[in-house]
Design brief:
The structure is a single chain. With 392 residues, the chain is α+β, with helices and mostly antiparallel strands. It has helices at 12-23, 36-41, 50-58, 63-68, 88-91, 102-115, 236-247, 297-318, 322-349, 357-372, 374-384, and strands at residues 5-8, 28-31, 47-48, 70-72, 74-79, 82-87, 97-99, 120-121, 125-130, 138-143, 146-151, 154-157, 175-190, 200-202, 209-215, 218-226, 259-273, 276-277, 280-282, 288-289. The strands form four sheets. An eight-stranded mixed beta sheet has the order 6-5-14-15-16-13-17-20. Strands 8-2-1-12-19-18 form a six-stranded mixed beta sheet. β18 (276-277) and β19 (280-282) form a beta hairpin. The chain binds P-hydroxybenzoic acid. Residues 45-47, 199, 212, 220, 292-293, 295 line the site of P-hydroxybenzoic acid.
Length: 392
Amino acid sequence: MRTQVAIVGAGPAGLMLAHLLSREGVDSIVIETRTREYVEHRVRAGVLEQGSVDLLDATGVGERMRREGLVHRGIQLRFGGVDHRIDFGSLTGGRAITVYGQQELVKDLIAIRLAADLPLVFEVGDVQLHDIDSEHPSVSYMVHGSRTTIECDVIAGCDGFHGVSRDSVPAGVLTTYERVYPFAWLGILAAVAPSSEELIYCYHARGFALLSMRSPSVSRLYLQVPADERIDEWPDTRIWEELRTRLASDDWSLTEGPVIEKGISAMRSFVVEPMQFGRLFLSGDAAHIVPPTGAKGMNLALRDVSILAEALTVFFTTGDTQLLDEYSAHCLRRVWRAQHFSWWMTSMLHRFPDSDAYQTQLQLAQLAYTVDSRAAATSLAENYVGYEWATT
Ligand code: PHB
């Protein structure tokens, strides 16, 4: 088989890249180790920045998101049992975010790809990248018991943090930056109407809690738990009791409902530089991870691939590699802004195991300032809706 771009991974990054390239007449083949069923139901991120919404709209993927996504013009910061609203509208000149589950976007992109009869192969095994530092790289994989090879011009590594793409780069080429946090998030999906119209980010002495949602009838809730926590230690009754305790506020109550899904995810910050080696380009979680507190993960992935799609389009139409050469640096400015914001939100809102009374007072001082000062609130708001650089 031969194509222009072999795309490893059918998450939001890989599928969106394939979509953007097909609009420009660039051929690609997408391969994925999981089943279609798995990627369409994997519960992950849920917040789209304004720029991501605009990108989906502009490229013909926004129709169901526009209908079913929930537009939010602010979030609540809850501490000391009291809500403080960060109003995106007035602080960012009318920008907003849209709550739309990553798996919904994945479903939309798969439907578009299959309707156009473009190649997308699920359940491949033993993926290997070859000759990535030559002009004729290839990707091989096992399917139905035999090995298939895709000859290509470029490989896009969109296979997430645990994928094989990043590890295919020779040792010593990439610089890694990393923080692992001493806590995790226990997340549930519950079949109950959200108890708040807006997301509530809650600081509490027992640890962070977050109320989010997926639709008018499905809530998404999170609790900070110790890093090595096991999910079987958290029966549903314990989860609801802890959520009630941490989210407690006067004249407000948390409505409970059946838990549809639950799991624990580790929290880390991670970046590799550069996001390219030879003809391999890394996008999304394959190149960088943020803790979920800033809701940036899916947005960074979408931005990476929109930059990559443009660079590849120029490359395939003119042979000019300048934009491809600039890809990594171009992405990394935004990546590092999101790294800082996500680390900052995480540090302000979580209870650290080694935290003392002084640390707690610093967090409360920062929260009080963030909601009181228009400058500080604007900083949170403009990062949350997605910071657009004023300088190029
Ligand atoms: C989610 O709804 O899954 C969600 C929302 C906001 C976050 C993280 C996760 O900061």
